[in-house]
Recover the amino acids of this structure.
């Protein structure tokens, strides 16, 4: 009996030509789709894809009653030293004192671990900057909705003017700012815990006859309870918070048993871009279409290679079958 060798007679020519023609057409379609989508996206979405640089704030200190303060009457707060204290706090573990929420229930910052946390210090007796800063933070948090859902991070506002920033005062302040987000709480620490808490966060403040001079900004804490970044300014935007939050969430390890959901969330985050016209994140359809074009291209190439591999295997089997038939007839 004759041994069947590799590289025997090929499949019928018409069949191979039809198969290759179909595979090549699919690959060509994928390439053209990818190129056309990319070119149209570059032409139409270049401006939207650029995230604006974050400008430096004119001042990061609230000067209580600055308009009516007599020069030299109050030392106030040194802005440079306050910024240095805030930056020095990055990488520090946050303390975990017992605090009270708006309903008077005991809460610890450790209960927020597992997700990034945004921390803002306020005092409810402020009638100008603290409400403005809190409303701006509210708008920024709402602007993150497309990129991040409320289930992916938490926000706390901490009242540092104790005992006046008690749960009732914090509840009234939140209501006046119309904040009722499921992932946002207003907390009241004990008076004796305020100094350690604010120093750990690098938050500086100083009492004045008109109220307090204090740092304006938000501290970003990672899921383990360490300070990751300081975002300064009285009118914080969604993109200023979105950058550190995106870094934390993309670097985080997916939880066991939720790999697919974690992958979907990461893709959704990557497919969003900040729109300065609306102050919100939106889906970057240019990037989404480019990804679809890329998937079509690589899928077409994979189909072509698979068809070629199957065709070559079939071509090797045909001589074997013909040889076995002829041997049987002899």
């Amino acid at each position: 009996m004759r041994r069947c060798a590799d590289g025997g007679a090929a499949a019928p020519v018409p069949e191979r030509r039809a198969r290759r023609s179909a595979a090549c057409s699919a690959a060509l379609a994928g390439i053209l789709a990818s190129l056309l989508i990319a070119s149209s996206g570059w032409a139409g979405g270049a401006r939207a894809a650029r995230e604006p640089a974050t400008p430096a704030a004119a001042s990061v200190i609230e000067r209580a009653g600055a308009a009516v303060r007599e020069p030299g009457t109050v030392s106030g707060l040194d802005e440079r030293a306050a910024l240095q204290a805030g930056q020095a706090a990055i990488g520090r573990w946050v303390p975990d004192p017992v605090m009270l929420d708006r309903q008077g229930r005991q809460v610890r910052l450790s209960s927020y671990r597992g997700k990034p946390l945004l921390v803002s210090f306020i005092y409810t007796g402020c009638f100008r900057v603290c409400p403005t800063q809190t409303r701006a933070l509210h708008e920024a948090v709402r602007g993150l909705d497309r990129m991040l859902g409320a289930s992916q991070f938490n926000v706390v506002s901490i009242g540092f003017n104790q005992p006046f920033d008690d749960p009732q005062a914090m509840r009234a302040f939140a209501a006046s700012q119309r904040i009722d987000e499921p992932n946002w709480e207003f907390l009241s620490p004990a008076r004796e815990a305020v100094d350690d808490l604010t120093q750990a966060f690098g938050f500086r403040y100083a009492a004045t006859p008109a109220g307090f001079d204090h740092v304006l900004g938000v501290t970003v804490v990672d899921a383990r309870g360490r300070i990751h970044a300081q975002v300064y300014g009285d009118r914080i935007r969604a993109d200023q918070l979105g950058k550190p939050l995106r870094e934390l969430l993309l670097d985080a390890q997916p939880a066991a048993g939720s790999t697919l959901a974690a992958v979907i969330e990461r893709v959704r985050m990557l497919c969003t871009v900040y729109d300065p016209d609306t102050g919100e994140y939106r889906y970057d359809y240019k990037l989404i279409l480019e990804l679809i074009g890329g998937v079509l291209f690589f899928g077409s190439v994979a189909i072509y290679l698979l068809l070629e591999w199957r065709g070559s295997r079939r071509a090797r089997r045909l001589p074997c079958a013909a040889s076995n038939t002829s041997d049987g007839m002899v």
About this structure: The longest helix spans residues 285-329. The longest strand covers residues 117-122.
